[in-house]
Fold these 2 entries.
Entry 1:
Amino acid sequence: MQLKQPLWPRFLPTATVLGCATLGPLGRNLPAPGTWGSLAGLMYFTVFFADRYGVIGTLLLSAMGAYVAVAICGEAEFRLGRRDPGEVILDEFVAMPLCFLGWPALLDPLPPWAVFLLGFGLFRLFDILKPLGIKKLQDLPAGWGVVVDDLAAALLTCAVMHGAQALWHAYGAAA
């Protein structure tokens, strides 16, 4: 199966495509746009996902958001004439909720603010370093390469946080 760029964004005005891909002024006017996109994604998770949908609902909504992001980010690449432009931050935004899959379990032993800070920090680290083959995901065609590496960084963040929480319960709580 070959991944293809969705066609529907071709019919949208350039201002709409770029406005969505850059989250308006966040991607265009601020330094470190990926960090701002991630912060906006953290707020998106907090307002729309935390304590609402559970793992299955979050996965389904994230899959829909990822599809839209693939379409918009790929079209933005085309219109800007650059591969994975830094100002395109919709990918970070839609990936952030995946960092917090299983949200209620992550709240023991840490308070919500600490889980948010840890998830945000780990996601930015993994998004920048792209460890464990995540970097190769950028080679996927069009918008897929822009978005899928961020989804992988978010899932790695989630796995590390749940792994640390499990180790805490196995060893730290007993001490």
Entry 2:
Amino acid sequence: MRTTIDLPEALVTEAMRLSHQRTKTGVIISALEEYVRKQKIQGLKAYKGRVSLDVDLNRLRKRP
């Protein structure tokens, strides 16, 4: 998808340097992927302590 946006040049340059990306497009794609990944992790954290599994941990630990 083509989109025109105004970005601070210094910020894009620093992001390119830190991420070792060679293109502005690469930096933006990496940033969006990282943002989506972090949001999914946050969503999973909401289930902490709410999911109960009937799993025998002792049996699992003895697997070959």
